[in-house]
Amino acid sequence: MDERVAELVLRAVEQVPRGRVVSYGDLAELVGTGPRHVGAIMRDYGSGVTWWRVTSSYGDLPAHLREEARARWAEEGIAWKPNGLGCRIRDHRADLARLAADWDRATADLR
């Protein structure tokens, strides 16, 4: 795996504000890779960043992460959908323009 791309993704995740989420696709578009690549990076390297702020395009979390994310989301004010799979992403999505600007500053040393 390209370590530079992994670092770009992880730094993007670190810019997602408390109480907000982004999708794998949002991050992929920002970094210039694919959503599945972002998912693989998060699986392999994401435990040290705010992984619970990264969801599917529907706002859902993988089943194996939901229980651990539950307390973190409650603390941050992210409401679960009635089906318990994740949040309504339209209600909790980060401002993507602001995320891009913050990410740009946070990754200046890598470009």
Structure report:
- The chain has 111 residues and is mainly α.
- It has a single domain (3-104), classed as Arc Repressor Mutant, subunit A (Orthogonal Bundle), CATH 1.10.10.10.
- Helix content is 54%, strand content 4%.
- It has six helices and two strands, in the order αβααβααα.
- The protein has helices at 3-14, 24-31, 35-45, 63-76, 89-92, 96-106, and strands at 22-23, 54-55.
- It has a two-stranded parallel sheet with strand order 1-2.
- Helix 1 (3-14) packs across helix 2 (24-31) and helix 2 (24-31) crosses helix 3.
- It is globular and about 40 Å long.
- 31% of the residues are buried.
- The mean pLDDT is 97.
Features:
111 residues, mainly alpha, Arc Repressor Mutant, subunit A, two-stranded parallel ribbon, 6 helices, 2 strands
Question: Which helices and strands occur, and which strands form pairs?
Answer:
Blueprint: H1 3-14, E1 22-23, H2 24-31, H3 35-45, E2 54-55, H4 63-76, H5 89-92, H6 96-106
Parallel strand pairs: 1-2
CATH topology: Arc Repressor Mutant, subunit A
- Note the gap between the termini: 18 Å
CATH class: Mainly Alpha
On the 0-100 scale, what is the average pLDDT? 97
User: Can you tell me the CATH architecture?
Assistant: Orthogonal Bundle
Short description:
This protein is mostly helical. The chain contains 6 helices and 2 strands, in the order αβααβααα.
